[in-house]
Amino acid sequence: MMDMMDITTVWEDLVWDNGGKIVYLILDGVGGLKDRDRGGTALQVAHTPNLDEIAKNSSCGLLEIVGPGITPGSGPGHLSLFGYDPLKYRIGRGVLSALGIDFDLQTGDVAARVNFATRDTEGNISDRRAGRIETDLNRHLCDKINEKVSLDFEGKFFFKTVSEHRAVFVLRGDGLNDKLPDTDPQNIGVPPIEPKATSEDSKKTADLVRKFIDRVNAVLADEQPANTILMRGFERYEHLPKLRDRFRLNAVCIADYPMYRGVSRLVGMDVLPHPGGMKQRFETLQSCYGDDYNFYFLHVKHSDSEGEDEDFDGKVDVLEAVDRLIPKITDLNPDVLVVSADHSTPAVMGRHSWHPVPAMIQAETARVDDVSRFDEYSCGQGLLGLRPGTHLMGLALAHAGRLQKFGA
Amino acid sequence: MMDMMDITTVWEDLVWDNGGKIVYLILDGVGGLKDRDRGGTALQVAHTPNLDEIAKNSSCGLLEIVGPGITPGSGPGHLSLFGYDPLKYRIGRGVLSALGIDFDLQTGDVAARVNFATRDTEGNISDRRAGRIETDLNRHLCDKINEKVSLDFEGKFFFKTVSEHRAVFVLRGDGLNDKLPDTDPQNIGVPPIEPKATSEDSKKTADLVRKFIDRVNAVLADEQPANTILMRGFERYEHLPKLRDRFRLNAVCIADYPMYRGVSRLVGMDVLPHPGGMKQRFETLQSCYGDDYNFYFLHVKHSDSEGEDEDFDGKVDVLEAVDRLIPKITDLNPDVLVVSADHSTPAVMGRHSWHPVPAMIQAETARVDDVSRFDEYSCGQGLLGLRPGTHLMGLALAHAGRLQKFGA
């Protein structure tokens, strides 16, 4: 290890209150690989005249979001784009899940992801997802647990539905710690794992978790198939510095999916009510664009989902649908328009990948390069080059006139 | 300022036991400069249809092995390729030479390279290599030294033939230290340099070395031309973490030259018996390819040697010979095939250089770029971009499916 400057902290010293507005259009998982039958990546195959027009007026490049060979989860991917080095700011599923259901996490809370599960008469797990129960049943079970289970300590717990078999558990109180193993054995035919403390200072938390699970088991004893719960990703919530304090950005998030709303809240964005659809998100941007904010994060989920579903054509369709909505952004004439992604999700792989994502920055102050198409290959020829994802925020701030000169 | 993460340690947290096999074909010193008369680099001039075919199916780029402007020695060069930052893991010729003769170095041993040399009647060095004596004579002299020289201390010494005029000296015992200067004056007509301690804690070692050299001089007094020895590169051996422990790689080294066998042993590779020739090395890869290993390091030495000999055409010939052997690798259809180098050795310079080396990664999961030739200029247009040499291992692991997602 060595002492090196985190470049994102240098921007903190250079920002001022002048400068223009920044719009981030994040096409989740947009990077891809070539499909042999289709002769290109989804971005290459898609007909995207509006995105290409932006490319023609932009500096383009490729972003390696977390690091070489590293496949970003959605949380770290977005942190990187927002100028938070994900190797420094570690957040996991526990915290993100809680934030994603609009839960107001407080510093020191310990959150974990929960699955309703099925255990057999011998106490072994027979289904880690309890047959993916309906969300309604999940709500009913959560109500029952909240009503009947109590923990006798100076703090409190929260137990909340996410969807289907997924829920979130949060412990709030003094001296809590997240150093305990998942109780989810990640396997069937075996019992859950004991929530044993892995350090002296997590004994209190482990004890509370054990009691909680025992009491839940009693309450759910007669339920089928969801007669137990499994927990994983215990995580203590640490306060992250806010975009306002770091970069003087009044930022707003326009997203429908919990994860992205959660990570936005984490960095201090205002999170607007669910727009309820892609077109609605673009329209929400139009209606909120004005003096209240200088940073707008508009999230498109389905470019990732179609990639995960290995649906190349579906991904192409999403990209073309996005393209048709682009004028809703460009009509606003933002000072800086960034189009990029939090990670690649090649449809030929069906999962997130480490491959760099294309990025473009359109601004009056951009050194416009010769790239005329928004895709992985064209952007690879752009003047921004291949660089870490965390660089994007500094470049956006600079292009918006928000960074002062360094030194005399 | 903050403690920045060494990205190679992040991979350690993400590796799992799944994934495919990785083959590293390392063409030592393959990077070059253009020869004005020949109109290109050796790689550009060489007819290499098989390497070019790999390029057409690969992600290509350039690797800066140690850092900008830094000319790598062979040891650091290979460490970088294996995912060990050479600025963090410092090893020198002393240790590598000992490892290269299959010597079982133990933590705390101090090793040095030795030359048999000639000194004149006034005690000045007249030939730093004793006329490059035959290896047989070297062995005879080593036997004589081992038989007749003794050092009275609680530890012991080893004195071993490498080849020609080269030998290795190892001191083993408590409290040894490597802070002493080379005794080799790197010049003739001058006496050897005194092995003076450069710090308090190297006094014991310096004293032992001085006594040893004095006694060797007495034993060799009547020999010609090898009547003395010169030592350089004193180095205390520190244990390096193994590839198995860091990246869950069961790795095997197929190489003929001591240095490369040594560095491979250092990172925990199995080192196969000397194949005894380039074709034999490729065939050894074929015969050992299977379930025992998931990482295969195949080393080609002569691309470097010809460069050092300023033999441009010789280097071209080596590359064409390598190219003819490529099917022996591609027939195995490895999940990930990496072709790269540990440093450049331009024939027009006749020595190692700092110029980045071409690299290509062929895999099902590679974002195949438009590069169609394996050379320094073509790879400079590839999608891997220009990046540190240490990145290569992470990329290889990722392409083999050996790295899990980072965060949720």
Q: What does this molecule look like?
A:
Two copies of one chain form a homodimer. With 408 residues, chain A is of the alpha/beta class. In chain A, 32% of the residues lie in helices and 20% in strands. Chain A is built from 14 helices and 14 strands. An eight-stranded mixed β-sheet of chain A has the order 10-9-11-2-12-13-3-14, with helices on both faces. In chain A, helix 4 crosses helix 9 and helix 10 packs parallel to helix 12. The longest helix of chain A is centred in the last third of the chain and has 19 residues. The radius of gyration of chain A is 23 Å and the shape is globular. The two termini of chain A are 31 Å apart. The relative contact order of chain A is 0.25. The mean pLDDT of chain A is 95. Chains A and B meet through strand 1 and helix 4 of A and strand 1, helix 1, strand 14 and helix 14 of B. Strand 1 of chain A pairs antiparallel with strand 1 of chain B.
